[in-house]
């Protein structure tokens, strides 16, 4: 499988799941959840979906349980909207990279850099 098709398919999965989370989910636990990234293996059999709830890391466990419960719904909708031979198995992961970005930003803001002396 070409890398270009892999990336295109992963991006399409990301867009579809983002749209489903935004418009079609009735579960209140999934309000405010965003898809940050999607990756798919070379055979298009397994997709890793990275999600985050902006500004609310305390809901991680609750959101992951709701996503695991809704995996069948997401696969069904992907099958309806994409033209793939088989619909990939979806694996949801919590994206902790945003917390790392906040930590780095906080550290950088604490740095005191003396002004440059003119010659």
Describe the structure.
The protein is built from 4 helices and 3 strands. It has 119 residues and is an alpha+beta fold. A 3-stranded mixed beta sheet has the order 1-2-3, with helices on one face. A hairpin with a 5-residue loop joins β1 and β2. α1 (3-23) packs across α3. The longest helix is centred in the N-terminal third of the chain and has 21 residues, at 3-23. The termini are far apart. 18% of the residues are buried. The mean pLDDT is 88.
Write the element-wise H/E pattern from the N-terminal end onward: HEEHHEH
End-to-end distance: 59 Å
Spatial strand order of the main sheet: 1-2-3
The secondary-structure class comes to alpha+beta
Number of helices: 4
How many β-strand stretches?
3
Q: What Rg is obtained from the alpha carbons, in whole angstroms?
A: 19 Å
The best one-word shape is extended
Low-confidence stretches: none
Mean pLDDT: 88
Short recap of the structure:
The protein has about 120 residues and is of the alpha+beta class. Helices cover about 45% and strands about 20% of the residues.
Helices and strands, with pairings:
Blueprint: H1 3-23, E1 33-40, E2 46-53, H2 60-69, H3 71-81, E3 89-94, H4 97-110
Parallel strand pairs: 2-3
Antiparallel strand pairs: 1-2
Helix pairs in contact: 1-3
